[in-house]
Amino acid sequence: MKALVLKAKEQLTYITDYPEPTSLKDREVLIRVKYCGICGSDLEAYQYGKVLMPIILGHEFAGDIVELGPGVEGWAIGDRVTAYPGQFCGKCFYCQQGQENLCKNIINGLGITINGALAEYVKIPANYICKLPKELSYQEGAIVEPLSVGYHGVNLSGIQPADTAVVLGAGTIGLSTIQALKLRGIKEIYVIEPNAFNRNIALQLGAKETIRLNRLNKIGPDFVFDCAGFPTTYKKDINIVRNGGTVVLLGIHFELTPISFLQLITKEVNLKGSFGYTFQEFKTIIRLLLQGKIHPKSMITKIVPLSNIIKEGFQALLHPDRQAVKILAKI
Ligand SMILES: [Zn+2]
Ligand SMILES: [Zn+2]
Fold first, then answer.
1. Which residue, 88, 104, 181, 256, has fewest beta-carbon neighbours within 10 Å?
2. Confidence (pTM)
3. Ligand having the closest approach to the CA of 176
4. What's 148-273's CATH class?
5. d(C-alpha 91, C-alpha 38), whole Å
């Protein structure tokens, strides 16, 4: 089958004769992938390794079930599906509370520890798959995952409609955060994003330029959502949030970052980490897409055949003047 394999850091290869997944285990299904997005974490894996290699990357996808393993119930060949990509234990304290993103015994991560979906076929235990209603396209199915990330951050934050929010970074996660904030009724949403292409999409989705916030409000925003995740933005978050305000960190950075705890204390800043999303939130995004309450089209800026995805996908996204947000591979 066709597959995009990361053999080692920076060694990404498009292969046309990769062996198809065979002999499905108990309760696994085989999915013929139609579209799979490139995530920031796929770019990180490409640049720095830090996944179990060799591996097929990709975890934001949709496709059709083409084979059922032993014991699979409630699913049929031909069902259109997407899947929750983190494989959680279902038994620990967190899983029992519906906080699968915090599972203590994460079993596998698609495209991190087991083969992902930038390939013709992917096999997955049936308990992680979700039905894609016929009204939704496979492309919309492939963007459920990144939309869930912003939705989770906003749910955690406790923000109320009268509050002001700054979203720092307007990549896929920033744009999904803006949509989740709008959905929650927040009217004053401001964006900080140096890339004009991305910033314009944020403005189209209803965010405003921060200069207007400065005129409106001299004390700073009630909430800052960091969707960039650089040491410099972490510092900026704490600088710009108002005293007693909340900073939600959605952007991930691997290095240790010096920040001033004195500033955190004296400003009484609430600092919240936000990691992934729950299985329920993932399912809710499918429902919100179905209800037309989220608009993913402006975020999907390019569709590229899998054979060209290294150059037109990975390298295009890593280019400093990139003109792309979410790039999907058509498989
Ligand atoms: Zn992702
Ligand atoms: Zn668990």
1. 256
2. 0.95
3. 1
4. alpha beta
5. 31
